Amino acid sequence: MVLRRALLPRLLACLLVLLAGCSSAGDDGGVPAWADGMATVQEADLPAEAQRTVDLVDEGGPFPYAQDGAVFGNFEGLLPQQKRGYYREYTVRTPGSDDRGARRIVTGRDGETFYTDDHYASFTAVLR
Length: 128
Hints:
Number of strands: 6
Radius of gyration: 22 Å
Structural class: alpha+beta
Oligomer: single chain
């Protein structure tokens, strides 16, 4: 009986610790601060051509278009505000298109990755 009385408070304390650790209150779901408030997509869920562009960025090229790696000005103001030169843009090939198309990957200096399929009218934060 004495053992049960000593054990009960410890079991309750452990249970409270476990419940607090599993709580979703205040949990951002693993979304980084730079993507706060934006739509998100896992890298693996991007179109195959966008995944290949991300791989090329990680590898440092070579890129299929001369404009790839150019400064992205964020004139639309849809990405977090940063100094000019912070963002770079890369073409995502569009099958059947005879020009660069509308799809791009935009990266930030601190590793942020964004995808647009409508030529900068909207962005999705890429979670990697």
